[in-house]
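Q: Structure tokens for this one, please.
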Amino acid sequence: MYDLASLTKPLATASAILLLVQEGLLDLTTPIDALLEETNGCPLGQVVLKDLLCHQSGLPWWRPFYQSFPPSLPSGVQSRQERIKAFLELILKEPVEAFSPPKSVYSDLGYMVLGWVVERITNQSLAEVCQSRIFGLLHARPLGYRGQNVTEKSCSLIEACAPTEQDPWRGRLLQGEVHDDNAFALGGMAGHAGLFGTAEAVGQVTKAWLEGYKGNPGLFDPQLVKQFVTAQPGTSWALGWDTPSQPSSSGQWFSPESFGHLGFTGTSIWIDPVRELEVIFLSNRVHPTRDNHAIKAFRPKLHDMIIQEISESS
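A: Here is the predicted structure, written as tokens:
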């Protein structure tokens, strides 16, 4: 299994929000202060759900909030809720920039907030929501959060996870625990990062998105899928997904209708609905250090080679 990093955003958070919209429990135009009462009177409270999904909330992309906490997982549900409260208080202290015209600034913070919206609406943890409403129904195994203390897990399960980085904050090589320090401080379960899985399991979820795009009945409403994977004006970002820009990690030949996402640990998804093609690439490029940036050149070459091979075979 691999640490999927920011693939968590579309596979877990955006998928869960689509289902909640589909069920009439959420509306994309609802302001956050109607969903999280703590944001009342704050600039973030006036941001609507859709703007968080496409990174147009005005929140900064990242902050080292984890440094305010000890390098250990919160113990129990109550302790995790206290961490969430503390994180939200830190986020509310951040400036929310208003851009005219609207501008996308990729933000982990925005997806943390979206994860808490899902939990507040469902009264379940994000892991429970995703497992019961998405991954379980799609037989996407193994795919899920690994928030429990890794010392309580069997060695075989830990060893089944590709190692990531020697982490200075936690003081150890990370294996079987989330690489993202903010996600770890939140109990290993967050809207922006935390999922682990295999390419086959990820493919069960991406297949559901592709089937929805094609208009086939399934878990996701086709009309909503089309809405979620369509780029917003002035940006390549859609709702939970990115679309090809130039240059693109999807290479030169993925269709303009394609959608995908990257993960910091060396993961990516690109789906071309015109070709009915899904490319899921998982690696641990941050092992033993994040200083290896060769993947930036490798990703587009990989996708170009795949398209070339398909074209030559057809």
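A few notes: The radius of gyration is 19 Å. The first strand starts at residue 2 and ends at 3.
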